[in-house]
Design brief:
The protein has 465 residues and is of the alpha/beta class. The protein contains 12 helices and 19 strands.
Amino acid sequence: MQHRRDFLYNTLLGAGPIALAHALQAAGNAPLAPREPHHRPKAKSCIFLTMLGGVSQMDTFDPKPALDKFDNTVMDWSKERATDQVSLFAKPRLILRSPWKFARHGQCGMDVSELFPNLAGCVDDMAFVKSIQAENGNHPAAVFLMNTGTVIPGSPSVGAWTTFGLGTPNQNLPGFVVLPDFRALPFSGSQQWGAGYLPASYQGTMLRWKGEPIRDLKPPAGIGPEQQTAERELLRSMNEDHLGRHFTNPDLQGRIDAYELAYRMQTEAPGTLDVDGEPESVRSMYGLDNEVTESFGRRCLMARRLVEKGVRFVQLYTPSQSWDSHTELLTRHKKNAEEVDKPIAALIADLKRRGLLDSTLIVWMGEFGRTPDNLADQRDKAGRDHNTRAMTIFFAGGGVKPGVTVGRTDDLGFKAVENIYRIRDVHATILRLMGLSDMRLTYYHAGRNRRLTDLGGNPIQEIVA
């Protein structure tokens, strides 16, 4: 006689896994197939320009004349008890004026530092938010928060959530592409663009800007299409058989999908990523003829070509902590701005002239802002420290109201005091413009429905056209 518990157990090991395996395979045959959005989207693709290290708001897009007035005077931190850098702020600190001049640009009259002479010409296509607050002043945790909505590893990135919700129009290219700077990868590397608890198919695909963007993409010499197809079919059969026996491993289907995508990419990826085939005038516009701008410029041009081909989400990174200017603000910020200013301005202008800006959302941000002061004993090599209370970010393109400014900081640029938004609100805004509701985009994990914004964010309505 078979007990009920034994019957259920044997069923699970018998017909159960077969049915589940078939269900998983059916769902996995086209995990990146385009899906209906929650509402009418403003943008089809997103390019996320990630400025790692924390850009100083009062030296870029948020001028503060009071810094000149109080330059070299003591900053009163007596009321700032809540800080994650207690030892740093316990020492004497002096207010530091900005070394750069500001001027108003465009019909919107946006204030832009002389650090960004090229972006200054694009302000009428951009929307600035000066009142973003982060929740952690530690680089690794803050970068995770910026990318995944939580300060600890293991959650899906915003790019993974977007492709999970929408799929991607071009099945011969990844839905989510990452273009890092290999001089210094972000903290925890691929976890920053991982799929977390989502199916592995939605993780970012990292490409290189120098040399072959994807290693071993081309078949070996002497391998013809017929042999390649036969090998692919054999590998698929073996993989699916393995999946049927190990249906509880969620990564197996992702690996199978990756093999299939790699095969399809052999026909389309080489041409898409060949930026050297662009006219010289275009390559020069992006700064490919200058060693200072070549790296970021080439990746911006690759991003344009990728969204042109239907890639859903592209994320570019500056080197890890490159904007982190505790000291030598003058040289560090100047160097970083020179590397990205011309390429980003070219990206905006190029998308616009090709009729792609309206359908491509551009987001520019780092993990937090910087303080208006610096340690008194570092005055000879002055810089600024981490500041979670205020940072400036900008949006451009798909569904963004151009030429607007949202939010305000205090007289020193230290705290956001008007229209305050958090990182989760930035995420909600990206999803909103892409046609997704952050409250409806869920995945059941660890006993509850999980979201990019956790309990929800507030889209920045003031920038939505």
